């Protein structure tokens, strides 16, 4: 009887997981496109990105409604209950990634009115591709239920932070050396910060996958976090 209930619960949660995967695909596309918009100074792409964000918001709201309804009306337990809760939490992280991509698109519009800082734009491109890769890996881990792959994303948490710290210092050097770079440099700083936050959301998703599979909420301290924070300038440190 328990096996039948578990299977039924699994069948009920599966469509929800599929919708989260669809949301993840949309978020991945937003992030890849916002990085391309910055590096190519592509105003039409940035404008389209801003409009597309509404689709992510609507899908996240639908997933939230369905997850709450499923939890409230079905007798889910154990792994199936955790799957529903995980879907709800992952969708929220993905929606936030979409918001951050939209913010980057808005900064791209402002950057298009300034002279390009080509070397720094290339640094943004490298950081953006790293972030996009981390999000793809953790979403692949989610859809496949691969705890080891999620743990690999989690264990590389500081990679994005190190890129951000390096880019922060590089931008400050440019801005201090040439006042004409202050305005575009400030926009690039905000873009880098948004990319860093997307990397944090990928790590959050890895932790949610760990909870879904194991039922444990604690994966320990994020790797080398304290050591990295000690080396960061105060203004570069991520917000809580």
TrEMBL record:
GO terms for cellular component: cytoplasm. Coiled coil: none annotated. Keywords: Cytoplasm, Phosphate transport, Transport. GO terms for biological process: intracellular phosphate ion homeostasis; negative regulation of phosphate metabolic process; phosphate ion transport. It is found in: Cytoplasm. InterPro entries: PhoU, PhoU-like_sf, PhoU_dom. Residues 21-108, 124-209 form the PhoU domain. The keyword Repeat does not apply. PANTHER family: PHOSPHATE-SPECIFIC TRANSPORT SYSTEM ACCESSORY PROTEIN PHOU. Plays a role in the regulation of phosphate uptake. Homodimer. Belongs to the PhoU family. NCBIfam families: phoU_full (TIGR02135). This is Phosphate-specific transport system accessory protein PhoU. It comes from Phenylobacterium montanum. The gene is phoU.
């Amino acid at each position: 009887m328990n096996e039948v209930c578990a299977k039924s619960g699994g069948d009920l949660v599966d469509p929800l997981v599929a919708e989260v995967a669809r949301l993840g695909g949309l978020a991945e596309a937003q992030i890849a496109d916002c990085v391309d918009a910055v590096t190519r100074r592509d105003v039409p792409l940035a404008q389209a990105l801003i409009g597309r964000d509404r689709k992510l918001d609507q899908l996240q709201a639908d997933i939230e409604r369905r997850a709450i309804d499923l939890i409230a009306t079905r007798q889910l337990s154990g792994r199936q209950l955790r799957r529903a809760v995980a879907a709800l939490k992952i969708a929220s992280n993905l929606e936030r990634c979409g918001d951050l991509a939209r913010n980057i698109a808005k900064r791209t519009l402002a950057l298009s009115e300034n002279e390009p800082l080509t070397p720094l734009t290339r640094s943004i491109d490298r950081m953006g591709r790293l972030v996009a890769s981390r999000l793809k890996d953790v979403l692949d881990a989610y859809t496949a239920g691969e705890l080891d792959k999620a743990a690999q994303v989690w264990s590389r948490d500081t990679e994005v932070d190190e890129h951000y710290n390096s880019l922060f210092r590089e931008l400050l050097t440019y801005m201090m050396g040439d006042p004409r770079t202050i305005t575009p440099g400030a926009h690039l700083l905000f873009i880098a910060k948004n990319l860093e936050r997307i990397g944090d959301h990928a790590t959050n998703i890895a932790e949610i996958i760990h909870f879904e599979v194991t039922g444990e909420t604690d994966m320990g301290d994020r790797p080398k976090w304290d050591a990295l924070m000690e080396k960061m300038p105060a203004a570069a440190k991520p917000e809580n």
